[in-house]
């Protein structure tokens, strides 16, 4: 089951990441959060509570987004706060929030 188009397409525009120092309030409603949890769990193939580079790459590709391995590596480098070279769900959500906020800024321009 892939994530619904309205959830993933607007938030997966990979660019250079600049993580805000202030924690962002989630721009996702409860339904979107639930769908992101399911998407994360589906692509956490070894059920270790983290998505590594290969799993994140597959997750993003499953949404139809054109992404490269280098883009995924940069995203992990930017949002992997505990240094384990993967994203746990909290780190994954930080990435998703940042992407959603970037998309909103681009659409307002």
UniProtKB/TrEMBL annotation:
It comes from the Eukaryota. Residues 31-66, 67-102 form the EF-hand domain. CDD domains: EFh (cd00051). One of its GO terms (molecular function) is calcium ion binding. It holds the Pfam family EF-hand_7. Keywords: Calcium, Metal-binding, Repeat. Belongs to the calcineurin regulatory subunit family. Composed of a catalytic subunit (A) and a regulatory subunit (B). This is Calcineurin subunit B. It comes from Mortierella alpina (Oleaginous fungus). The lineage of its organism: Eukaryota, Fungi, Fungi incertae sedis, Mucoromycota, Mortierellomycotina.
């Amino acid at each position: 089951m892939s994530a619904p188009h309205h959830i993933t397409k607007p938030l997966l525009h990979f660019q250079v990441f600049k993580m805000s120092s202030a924690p962002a309030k989630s721009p996702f409603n409860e339904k979107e959060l639930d769908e992101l949890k399911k998407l994360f769990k589906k692509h956490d193939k070894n059920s270790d509570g983290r998505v590594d580079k290969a799993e994140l790459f597959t997750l993003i590709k499953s949404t139809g987004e054109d992404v490269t391995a280098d883009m995924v590596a940069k995203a992990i480098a930017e949002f992997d706060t505990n240094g384990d070279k993967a994203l746990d769900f909290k780190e994954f959500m930080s990435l998703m929030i940042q992407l959603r906020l970037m998309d909103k800024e681009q659409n307002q321009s």
